[in-house]
Each structure stands twice: as structure tokens, then as C-alpha cells.
Amino acid sequence: VLEGMKGLRRGQLRVSVASTANHFATRLLADFSRQFPEVAITLDVTNRETLLKQLDSNETDVVIMGEPPSDMDLEAEPFMENPLVAIASPEHPLCGEESIPLARLAKERFVLREQGSGTRGAIARFFEQHGQTLRTGMEMSANEAIKQAVEAGLGLGIVSLHTLELELEAKRIAVLRAEGFPILRDWYMVHRRGKRSTPVTQAFHDYVLAEAARHVRLPSGYSASGG
Ligand code: PGA
């Protein structure tokens, strides 16, 4: 598919991605840009709430986000799994446990993303669906900050597996084996319904569908199904 697009003329591509998707989106765009050096790319990294505003006001060509809302006129295509895992400092007493009941996990305090984050919304829904109350500790607007806070023992965290790389290998952070985890979500490519595609946006769309998985490094030993 992409071979035919090699001669793609100069054009513009505005991509907006959820903060969490940035952990792979940069690699994805770098490779796309090597294949299509004539295309001027802008990348905006922001949270779910802002992405929805951008879609609404037509400020972006493509959005990469979790679970698009059903009450907006959007076209959305899932292209990759996004597992959310519970994390702790390796010294945390729950780290040795084989199967942590959700009610036990819910006794802990969590360092969470800000309101408006898709990850935050999914976590809140998960606890609610299981009849548990989420005890929120500190709020942080960046996954990197959450990982550091968890490592420092400020609380537990729930983050996308896509945000974890070296922390697990270096044993600075541990993934907990908790009931109901990982929380399975998907990444979607989204644009406004009826938005006219250009050769550039079409090429990017095809590229993401075909190549995304190749640019994603999930930590070894962790699969989406909770291995
Ligand atoms: P977030 O988005 O970075 O806003 O949490 C991710 C998502 O929607 O899963």
C-alpha cells in the first residue's frame, strides 16, 4: 500500500495524541516522516478532554485516543490494545501477592492522572463497575510523574502498559497481580465524520493500521492478556 504513495507530494499533517499514546506516537511519526519526508507534521500531545475539543472545532486531522465518545459525530477505528496495569514500588507489601482481591487493592491510595484524562476515566469506571471506591491521593498530569511518585512510595498507580519500559527491567516499579487486571482498552484513530481525507491523511491512516504494532514495545514478559 505504502509503496504506491512514495511519491507523495508535500502536504500537511496535524496529529493530536493522548498523553499516554505519546509513548509510541513519536516513534510512529518518526518512521512515517522518514517514508514521507515532504510532509510537514505537527504533533500535539494533550489529554482526552482537549482532544475532544480539537475534534469538535476541526483543529486537527487525526487523533489517537482511547474509547471515542458515542455522542459525537466521529469516525473511529481501533488499531491496537491498550492494557492498564496496577503498579507499585517493589518494596510494597502487595508485590509478593499472587492474586490481590480488588477490595484489598481499593484500600490503597492511588496517584492518579488529572480529571479529563482517558486513563483516569477508565479507572474510575472500572472501580465503579466493581462496586469499589477509588481512594484518590495525589493527582498528576503526566504519566512520567506518576511513575516517579509510585517509585518513591507515594501510593499505587494504574497506568497504560505502553508507558512502562525500563522501569520494570530495572525493577524500579512492579506490576501487581490484581483481580480484574489488566483493564483492557483499545487505541483508536479518530476524525470527524465526513472530514475529507487528503492523500497525506490517507497515507497516515494506512500506515498506522499496517505499522503501529511494530513501533510499540511492551515490556518483555507482559502481554495484554495479563501474562
Ligand atoms: P490520557 O488518554 O492520556 O488522556 O489518559 C489515554 C486514553 O484515552 O486512554
From TrEMBL:
Transmembrane segments: none annotated. The keyword Nucleotide-binding does not apply. It comes from the Bacteria. GO terms for molecular function: DNA-binding transcription factor activity; transcription cis-regulatory region binding. Keywords: DNA-binding, Transcription, Transcription regulation. Belongs to the LysR transcriptional regulatory family. This is Transcriptional regulator. It comes from Acidihalobacter aeolianus. The chain holds residues 83 to 309 of 309 of the full protein.
